[in-house]
Amino acid sequence: MPAVSSPQTGQSEGRAQAESADKKKPAPGFLIIGTVFDERALSFPGVQVRIRRMDQKKFRWETYTNSRGEFAVRVPEGFDYEVVVRAKHYQDQSKSVRTNAGDIQQRLSIRLEPVNPGKTGAKS
Questions:
Q1: pTM of this prediction exceeds 0.90
Q2: Positive or negative torsion for Cα 67, 70, 76, 79
Q3: Tell me, what's the pLDDT at 8?
Q4: What burial class does residue 55 get, using C-beta atoms within 10 Å of its C-beta: 0-12 exposed, 13-18 middle, 19+ buried?
Q5: Which residues of the chain fall short of a pLDDT of 70?
Q6: What domains lie within the chain, and their CATH numbers?
């Protein structure tokens, strides 16, 4: 007579597989999202964005803004981070991000200023 498997056995095996898959799955982390603007408040594509932990010298994450001046980087929770934005002919901007405040993300709005601001007003 063939062996009949009980429905309970199949369910417990499914749970064991799901639990082992959860153990392998990394924690979701913290999302740093932002938009970079130029001095005229227009979105700024192609800007370098580098992120490092405050207690480290080396930058561990690097990305560039998209066509709308936006970026998003996922980092581990529980640390303070420094976000440095760099573009040619503009002053570097730095922002600090705390990931242990209970939030799952932080949105930044960064406005870059030119190194040599253009002359404004009428000529004398």
A1: no
A2: positive
A3: 52
A4: exposed
A5: 1-28, 118-124
A6: 30-111 (2.60.40.10)
